[in-house]
Specification:
Blueprint: H1 2-7, E1 20-21, H2 38-49, H3 55-74, H4 78-81, E2 84-86, E3 91-94, H5 95-115
Antiparallel strand pairs: 1-3, 2-3
Amino acid sequence: MLDVARSTPPASPPQSAEVRRTSPEEAAGIPTRPMQGGIDDYNARQVEKRAGATVAELLAEFETNRAATIAAVESADEALLRTPIRSAGGVTGPLSAVINAIAVAHVVGHVNDIVGGPAR
């Protein structure tokens, strides 16, 4: 998402700090990177890639990727974090809010799925 925000200078600052799901037409002119084949194809590719992995290996991969995400966000310029983007899944808003929606709230939802926490 950081690369998406860096790819095209925004035409104007975001109207709101809120995030919302948008269609490509609703987010015309906002930097994005389309998802190849849709979410089901993406998920199938990710499952296939990790089919032989142990739980310990999956957790190690998650920890490594999470640390890299945190480091990248911490080193990002404040102006970049205010850049409006649209994620591959259609979440639109300032980069910081889109990252929070996907890398925090979305992940918490999956963790709750695994541990039996509150429904999303």
